[in-house]
């Protein structure tokens, strides 16, 4: 736990200095998230899909955490690079702030309702309690955003690993399309 006031310097590419944690997610660690099995197998498992820096330490209900995420540009098959996506273990809200690049956040509540929100630089998206969330880089540069959430929120990845989101975000000739996951073969 960070007991004392602190400050940190956030770089344009999402770096945080100082930080308490840095987490790098490579394609090989999240292969099951992408629908196109053949494309996953053909791709480099060491490819960095995203990197996250965090300040503050998980724990108390009173503290907040701040985390930046940088999603690299690219596709696996026609599916854009994205985060694994999660529910918070303790249903609790979260603010996302778009810093650079072209992103989209996909949110899904426990009844299956889906809302997507673009996250251009300067935008703020509120993820309400009970909504799973996944971020997608729909551009050609890094997509960088900042998140602020409760320190005791916790991350539940299991439900998303099991059932995925009801939509996937695919590259098209003129940008992206949000399409139903039904009918797209899952790779795990
Ligand atoms: C934390 C917040 C983000 C994500 C990060 C990586 O609650 O939603 O900081 O942790 O974007 O995504 P994921 O799904 O791998 O945690
Ligand atoms: Zn979250």
Q: Which terms summarize this structure?
A:
binds D-sorbitol-6-phosphate; three-stranded antiparallel sheet; 17 strands; 2 helices; binds zinc ion; 188 residues; six-stranded antiparallel sheet; mainly beta
What is the radius of gyration?
A: 16 Å
Could you give a short account of the major beta sheet? 6 strands, antiparallel
Strand content: 35-45%
Provide the spatial order of strands within the biggest beta sheet.
Answer: 3-4-5-14-9-12
Overall shape: globular
Mean pLDDT value: 94
Structural class: mainly beta
Number of helices: 2
Bound molecules: D-sorbitol-6-phosphate, zinc ion
Helix content: under 10%
Low-confidence stretches: none
- Element order, helices and strands? EEEHEEEEEEEEEEEEHEE
Q: What's the total number of strands?
A: 17
* Distance between the amino and carboxyl termini: 36 Å
How would you describe this protein?
The protein is mainly β and 188 residues long. 6% of the residues lie in helices and 44% in strands. The chain is built from 2 helices and 17 strands. It has helices at 37-42, 158-163; strands spanning 9-10, 16-17, 21-26, 48-55, 64-71, 75-76, 79-80, 87-88, 94-100, 103-108, 114-118, 124-127, 132-137, 143-150, 155-156, 167-172, 175-180. The strands form 6 sheets. It has a 6-stranded antiparallel beta sheet with strand order 3-4-5-14-9-12, with no helix packed on it. It has a 3-stranded antiparallel beta sheet with strand order 11-10-13, with no helix packed on it. It has a two-stranded antiparallel ribbon with strand order 1-2. A hairpin with a 2-residue loop joins strand 16 and strand 17. The protein is globular and about 50 Å long. 34% of the residues are buried. The mean pLDDT is 94. The protein binds D-sorbitol-6-phosphate and zinc ion. The site of zinc ion has 5 residues, from loops.
